[in-house]
Amino acid sequence: MDSPDNRQLVLLGTWNDLEDSLADSVRAAIRERGAWASWWSFPVREEFQSELQGPFYVYLNSGGATINYRMLVDAFESVRGNEGIETPWPELTNADWLHKRRLGPKASEVFKTWFRVRKLERLPARLKLDDFEPAEGVLRAALLNQSAFGYAFLPESKTVGIESQLQRQLGEFLSSFAKARQEEQFSSEASPYQLIAAIRNSFAELPSVARRKQIAVKESVGRGNWSTI
After folding, report:
1. Could you give the CA distance from residue 29 to residue 26 in angstroms, rounded to a whole number?
2. What is the pLDDT, as a whole number, of residue 164?
3. Comparing 217 with 162, which gets the higher pLDDT?
4. What is the reported pLDDT for 7?
5. Which of 2, 24, 71, 189 has the greatest number of CB atoms lying within 10 Å of its CB?
């Protein structure tokens, strides 16, 4: 749900060990299961929950107050207190988190919030704290906190910029893919996997998001499913 001025509320959270290899494993889980359950050790503030009933983004600080990733969330459950809750989506949850309300004895290991994540993507350009506008009643200094979510709005200019860059990077890949096919660089016996591998090697200088999109479509191409690219 949008705010009264039609801006979309977003959350900010800190995920210190989030790197490309871990992000790739999360995306693999999403491809396999359709979504992925992510737990957090603090609740979503009640006064903001009504604005988060539709899909929304959680922007992720992976260290150094720099936001490199975001995940698209389409459902969540959150509780206060120290007992925690079990995952509401066991079929989407990593096996070592099942049938538990906490991972260990620390306060930072209690499962207080679960997100159903539909997408995790690396941003084409890093965002800084100053790129966000704090929600009403939220101090800018509180946007990034190890033990709480930040609540903010991302100006439309930034949102449009992110989406346009992601689309441009995907377009660059698709153009290079089509060019390789048109120029018949491969014999008719060449497998789609060989074609993808050659394009990936030839365009290694493309931004990391575009390179990962190449890898993500490889399985669909191998099955002859071009409509999913």
Report:
1. 5
2. 55
3. 162
4. 79
5. 71
This prediction's pTM? 0.70
Could you tell me if residue 86 is inside a domain? yes
Q: Helices H, strands E: what count in the chain?
A: 6, 7
| Category of 64 on φ-ψ map: left (φ > 0), alpha (ψ -120 to 50) or beta | left
Which domain range does residue 120 map to? 9-154
| Residue written as token pair 């609740």 | 43
What digits encode the pLDDT tens for the residues 170-197? 565 666 656 655 655 544 555 555 555 5
Residues 48 and 136 in one domain: yes
With CA atoms as reference, report the closest residue to 19 among 54, 69, 76, 93.
69
On whether residue 109 sits in a domain, the answer given is yes
pLDDT score, position 221: 39
Element (H, E) at 164: helix 156-182
56 in the same domain as 136? yes
Are 149 and 168 found together in one domain? no
Q: Which residues is 115 bridged to in the sheet?
A: 38, 76
Instruction: Output the CA–CA distances (angstroms, integers) from residue 54 to 2, 8, 61, in the order listed.
Output: 9, 10, 22
**225 Cβ partners below 8 Å, 6+ apart?**
none
Question: Are residues 36 and 104 both part of a single domain?
Answer: yes
Enter the tokens of residue 168: 């441009």
> If DSSP codes are grouped into helix, strand and coil, which group holds residue 70?
strand
Which conformational region is residue 177 in: left (phi greater than 0), alpha (psi within -120 to 50 degrees), or beta? alpha
